[in-house]
Amino acid sequence: MEIELLEIRDFLAVHHPFDQLSDPFLTMLPEKLEIRYFRRNTSIPDSGSVNNYLYIVRSGAVELLGKENELLARLSEGDVFGYRASHRETQEKQRRGTAIEDTLVYQLSASDVDHLCDKNPQFAYFFGPAGSDLLKDVMTSSGQDPKTQVSLMTTPIKDLINRQPITISPSSTIRETALKMSEERVSSILVCAEGQLAGIVTDRDLRNRVVAEGLDYDIPITEIMTFNPTTVDESDFAFEAQLKMARKNVHHLPVVRGDKIMGMLTVTDITKHDTTSAVYLVNDIYKMDTVEQMQRISAKVPQLLQSLASADATANSAGHVITAITDAITNRLLQLAEEKLGPPPVAYAWLAAGSQARNEQTAKSDQDNCLLIDDSYDPSTHGQYFQDMSRLVCDGLDACGYIYCPGEMMATTDKWRQPLQTWKHYFNRWIDQPEPMALMLTCVFFDLRCVHGNINLFRELREYVLRKTRGNRIFLAHMVGNALTHQPPLGFFRNFVLIKGGEHDQTFDLKHTGIIPIVDLARVYALAAGSEAVNTQDRLAEVAEGGEVTADSARDLSDALEFICFLRIEHQARQIRNDQQPDNFMSPDDLSHFERNHLKDAFSVVRTMQNVLSQRYTR
């Protein structure tokens, strides 16, 4: 019995919010739990109110339904439902659960939950506003220092690693692996061959792939390990790891530096560091089954942007966080489309373009996307499927506030829903015949990122394009000429050049005359160097290392971009606070003397680098 309680404790320790409990409370908790088994299609609870207990799904699946039998959420292993401090949230009384598979749950009484909440403030916080309302509360009314709310955005993963990696060789048996995990008191272990990562084994693998299947404990661990696991670099930020965990539905990520294994990051490592992250929002999205539910999530993006600005998050970090919401909505819409239409008849990749591809979104914008399909695609046989899919996704994005692209650069447009060979033909023509329309299109479609589907399709297209552009000076000269059409709004005497007349009189456009010129410069540098980077800051970092531009110049452009984007976020957050629609048009009157001078310096850097690039390719 003691071994069983320890196993339950270990299970709870890696699932939120129980990972927020102090060790004494976590150790005593299994004794308080009642284990319940519910057969498929039975109600949970079988009597009484869902609020009388907290339910933790150990295995199986549960649908949570509202008072009108509408589907609120679909829950699986590790998810919780039921008790939600109902004295503060009366609507919870209308909810009920249904087991959609044979399901095992742990049941904890409301009084026991109350006791845990009283003694563990971080645990108690989870039982405030539920579901999609959690982020708004975290960001606007938690009463915490805003800087702690976004610390995951500025904390490198290496700062969360607190021990050397625990490894075992591929020749080890399952028994030897389990013993070492027990001795080291870890919930996962890395399988390494000659210092190289070969796979990972978690306690869940031992439970589901060994015990449940009745396997011999003396067979090699390679029989049940996960090969080529998802990894993170130690220099990545903690929030990137947390988002990756949410997207991949994993709780352990090996941490690497190049080919060297540095350690293991668990969901507990992250949640102990900071529980107030936008990843809650992403997690909510992946549990939603209607566009209406996702609309409520996307409506919170302005408040999220406002909170990021208040917390002095870097513009680059803010862009990644905001874009992660867009990615999650896009992914979920594609999943729902496949559920409705059936499995795709051939492989495809859904590609984001523009600012979403670059992870540089702020306030919501229009959508830029396209569909890359395997060359086995037959329009007469498969065309209707992908047309219907594109319509469902683009309509859903528009309903969530990502309006239709005015230039119709979306997968719903037949031209942008094509097989690989057709896309290669497009890029051939754009690169070999760079007339004005082609150059305009390249500014959109040279910034692509796969957000769903077959990543290998995208990689083949990307590698093909980079081979065509690397060192292609004639094409790059045309790209430079096109980039110079966006000039910083700075006059000869370092005075701001403002828009005259119209809706935006006496303002300048921070996006098109401040940010886009730097984006264009970085794109040219990246294409010339054959860099695969898409994010502008990543491009500048890579080309500096490769010598396409000096390290000092790349750093100046990077700093200029960060400052201009920071001002745009502050500007949009101010508009949101004043119940205005956020835009990119700023008046110099909104800037302090310090900000005006530094913005002029930033514009001067951009102008200088434009002149340098112009002279290089003119020669």
What does this structure look like?
It contains 25 helices and 21 strands. It is of the alpha+beta class. The strands form six sheets. Strands 1-8-3-6 form a four-stranded antiparallel sheet. Strands 2-7-4-5 form a four-stranded antiparallel sheet, with no helix packed on it. Strand 13, helix 10 and strand 14 (about 250-255) form a beta-alpha-beta unit. Helix 21 runs antiparallel to helix 22. The termini are far apart. Residues about 85-95 and about 130-150 have low confidence and may be disordered.
Q: Indicate the multimeric state.
A: single chain
Q: Strand fraction band? A: 15-25%
Number of strands: 21
Mean pLDDT: 85
CATH superfamily of the largest domain: Beta Polymerase, domain 2
User: What sort of overall outline do the alpha carbons produce when their principal axes are compared?
Assistant: globular
Provide the helix percentage: 40-55%
Total tally of structural domains: 4
CATH-derived topology of the largest domain: Beta Polymerase, domain 2
List the uncertain runs.
85-93, 129-150
> How is the main sheet built?
4 strands, antiparallel
N/C terminus separation: 80 Å
Going by CATH, the architecture of the largest domain would be: 2-Layer Sandwich
Can you count the helices?
25
Rg over C-alpha atoms, rounded to the nearest angstrom: 26 Å
CATH top level class name of the largest domain:
Alpha Beta
Provide a concise account of the structure shown.
This protein has 619 residues and is of the alpha+beta class. The chain folds into four domains: 2-129, Jelly Rolls (Sandwich), CATH 2.60.120; 157-273, CBS-domain (Roll), CATH 3.10.580.10; 282-457, 2-Layer Sandwich (Beta Polymerase, domain 2), CATH 3.30.460; 470-619, Four Helix Bundle (Hemerythrin (Met), subunit A).
